[in-house]
């Protein structure tokens, strides 16, 4: 029994009890906390939209917006929606990603009532907005009502549009 209460054993017991007390005190202050969302998941819920609105005859007005994506919203759908509102244009039906190419499905009335200049500004505004917002894409191609088309009212759609 004498070997049990040596100076070193008592010293070890005191250090152990003090360590336990500090541990419990630290846990009380922190309490249960939620874990932070990983950076890559948080980044998926935001969209940095580089909006290039038509401003004929000067060119385009550049505006950058950071948007929060709601549940079920896709970056492409949100980009099309906001571009449509800003440009006062019919909303494109869909946006498809295919490697380094974007496909945009336009409604039949996309260029309705526009002359050749305004039609070009509207189409290039959409293409440049998408290429600036999604830098992994290198070109934009257009469909009309889900089908490849030679052109709209005045423009040739057979060739892709790239950033200058």
From TrEMBL:
Taxonomy, superkingdom: Bacteria
Keywords attached to this entry: Membrane, Transmembrane, Transmembrane helix
InterPro entries, per database record: GerMN
Annotated TM spans: 6-24
Domain GerMN: 101-148
Protein name: Sporulation and spore germination
Gene source species: Thermus aquaticus
Source organism phylogeny: Bacteria, Thermotogati, Deinococcota, Deinococci, Thermales
């Amino acid at each position: 029994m004498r070997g049990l209460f040596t100076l070193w054993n008592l010293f070890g017991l005191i250090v152990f009890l003090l360590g336990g007390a500090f541990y419990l005190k630290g846990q009380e202050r922190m309490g249960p906390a939620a874990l932070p969302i990983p950076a890559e998941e948080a980044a998926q819920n935001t969209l940095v939209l580089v909006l290039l609105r038509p401003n004929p005859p000067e060119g385009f007005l550049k505006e950058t917006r950071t948007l929060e994506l709601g549940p079920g919203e896709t970056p492409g759908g949100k980009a099309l929606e906001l571009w449509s509102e800003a440009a006062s244009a019919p909303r494109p039906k869909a946006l498809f990603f295919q490697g380094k190419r974007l496909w945009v499905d336009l409604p039949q009335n996309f260029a309705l009532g526009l002359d050749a200049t305004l039609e070009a500004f509207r189409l290039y505004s959409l293409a440049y907005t998408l290429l600036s917002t999604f830098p992994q894409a290198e070109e934009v191609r257009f469909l009309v009502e889900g089908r490849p088309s030679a052109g709209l009212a005045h423009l040739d759609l057979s060739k892709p549009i790239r950033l200058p």
